[in-house]
Design goal:
The chain is α+β, with helices and mostly antiparallel strands. Helix content is 33%, strand content 22%.
Length: 584
């Protein structure tokens, strides 16, 4: 993989121009440039330098007003099942990447490549060439969290070199010795295994943590191999400031302990006599599982670390600041041990939740999962900034149009425990009003059904994004308020009304479509037989499952209905002219 293809060259591009660029960026090359009309080739001394050239030059450096495209040069006959994917967001979870790659075929092997870049690089092998070609077409240039993926083939120099022993295809080892730090075959490490640590520190100690001309904070980042953001400008005049530490779990813990030691020393030097507890910020979605049933998890952490831990009340939360403050009191060593245990639980919860998201990024075109507030925004595991503003229009009642065009409104009936109605409505109806504004959806609680006292129906009306937001917050609220156990998944029943003539399409011949739906989404999909259509000639389709399974099933059913509607539309007669608009 040492040969490079340099594309998007202007007609005036010359060998001398390319030599100058490579020299300017200190990229050695082992052979002459072969310049053709619009493109060129060159050999690099080794794969590492070829990677460096791609990362530095491709899409970033101009020549005669045209931005260069640089990638591995792979002849068509050597294009195999293997791809290299670059410019992957550094904090992306492995499960999410895995799910994205699996959309295009069977992934036989995926291993991370060590590079000097901040973004991640992986080598992927698909089960068939057409699957690799599809992934190449779909993923090259695909925007993922503001990063444009770059995909290129890995040349297959000879079929024999890749032939696995005993004729088997799966489970082959990567050619050559694995790179240091690369995951071994079968391991599923994350590209970045940590959730950033968020802590609150008294404002008077921020100067000591930063140090003279930033020397102290630079030293902490260097020693702990971490990136530390001190949000000094947030909440002007506040008694405490948030600090975010991006690193491995060990790196976060080491940085946290060092910051506590600096604060303790500064307290002694300034004769500050009050106790300085450790305050950890965690998204409310994870706090229930941290506490555990009857508080068992938290009590165990307190006993094991000899600390006293309290958590801020739910009443302190707002729709746009869903973080809880976990206050830990004890010695510095005890607090450091408690931080490790608390964040271990938080990370486990996050990873369990985010694993379910791998199919959702393409579920609704244009849907930005990070903007929904269902999970921590920004970097993984990191709650929104302390002073985060609500989404545009959230307070004014204005709901911006979604996607590339107007979205058709949908009605979903979601069934929740009757005891949870008060939590969804909120004090004087504030929660349901706030949720309605946030999701840009109509949300109403139906009257109690005398035949089913245990459940109440929530009627949600709005386009796909509004449904996703509103239903997601309702699922989350039920978890927060402990209507489901800490290890119990929130599973709700949703009903969609479909035209009676379309019910057969949802079921499919011999139940094929509905069975495929259930296998794909992990939700239970039921179209009750012998239903009497309502006054609008509609029947009910029932969907039972956790949030992501339910959403995927709802979207797939809506796709089927859209297809039926398109087929029902009368086709224009050949040569028919559209009616002219009337003059006013």
């Amino acid at each position: 993989m040492n040969k490079l293809y340099i594309g998007n060259l202007g007609e005036e591009a010359s060998v001398e121009d390319l030599e100058t660029i490579f020299e300017q960026w200190k990229i050695p090359h082992s052979g002459p440039f072969l310049v053709k009309t619009g493109y060129a080739f060159v050999d690099c001394p080794d794969e590492k330098i070829a990677m460096k050239a791609i990362d530095i030059l491709s899409g970033k450096v101009e020549l005669h007003g045209k931005v260069l495209e640089v990638e591995h040069s792979v002849p068509k006959r050597q294009r195999s099942c293997k791809l290299q994917i670059r410019n992957i967001p550094p904090h992306m979870q492995w499960e999410v990447l895995d799910g994205m790659l699996a959309q295009y075929g069977a992934v036989e092997n995926c291993e991370q490549v060590n590079t000097e870049t901040e973004t991640a690089v992986v080598n992927v092998r698909y089960g068939a060439k057409d699957q690799a070609r599809l992934a190449m077409e779909k993923l090259n240039g695909f925007m993922l969290e503001n990063f444009a993926l770059k995909v290129s083939y890995i040349p297959d120099e000879s079929a024999a070199a890749d032939a696995p022993p005993m004729g088997g295809r799966r489970g082959f080892p990567p050619r050559g010795a694995p790179r240091a730090g690369s995951p071994s075959l079968g391991a599923r490490p994350k590209l970045q295994s940590d959730v950033p640590l968020r802590i609150l520190v008294p404002t008077q100690f921020v100067g000591a943590i930063i140090g003279k001309e930033g020397a102290t904070i630079r030293n902490i980042t260097k020693q702990t191999h971490s990136k530390i953001d001190i949000h000094r400008k947030e909440n002007a005049g506040a008694a405490e400031k948030p600090i975010t530490v991006h690193s491995t779990p060990d790196g976060c813990s080491n940085a946290c302990k060092t910051i506590m030691e600096i604060m303790q020393k500064e307290a002694v030097d300034t004769k500050f006599t009050e106790e300085i507890p450790l305050k950890i910020l965690a998204h409310n979605n994870f706090v229930g599982r941290l506490i555990g049933k009857e508080g068992r998890n938290l009590k165990k952490i307190e006993q094991d670390t000899e600390t006293k831990i309290t958590i801020s009340p739910l009443q302190d939360l707002t729709l746009y600041n869903p973080e809880r403050t976990i206050t830990v009191k004890g010695s510095i060593d005890a607090c450091a041990r408690a931080e490790e245990e608390v964040m271990k639980k938080v990370r486990e919860s996050y990873e369990n939740d985010v694993a379910a998201m791998n199919l959702q990024s393409n579920l609704i075109p244009g849907l930005n999962l990070n903007a929904l507030g269902l999970f921590p925004g920004g970097a993984p595991g990191m709650g929104p900034s302390m002073g985060s503003a609500p989404p545009p229009g959230a307070h004014s009642g204005y709901c911006p149009s979604f996607g590339q065009g107007p979205q058709e409104s949908e009605t979903v009936h979601l069934f929740i425990p009757a005891a949870a109605v008060g939590a969804i409505i909120g004090k004087q109806g504030q929660h349901i009003k706030q949720l309605s504004r946030f999701a840009c959806a109509s949300i109403k609680i139906a009257q109690a059904d005398p035949l089913d006292a245990k459940q109440r129906m929530v009627i949600l009306v709005g386009p796909p994004e509004a449904q996703f937001k509103a239903q997601g917050r309702i699922f989350g609220k039920l978890k927060e308020e402990n209507f489901f156990g800490p290890k119990e998944e929130v599973k709700l029943e949703a009903h969609i009304l479909v035209p009676s003539f379309a019910a057969g399409r949802v079921i499919g011949k011999g139940g094929k479509t509905v069975n495929e739906l259930q296998n794909l989404t992990s939700a239970e999909v039921v179209v009750p037989r012998d239903q009497t259509p309502d006054e609008n000639d509609q029947v009910v389709v029932k969907i039972i499952g956790h949030f992501y399974a339910s959403q995927l099933a709802q979207r797939k059913i809506q796709e089927i209905l859209a297809q039926v509607r398109r087929q029902q539309q009368p086709k224009p007669s050949p040569g028919a002219q559209p009616p002219l608009p009337r003059r006013k």
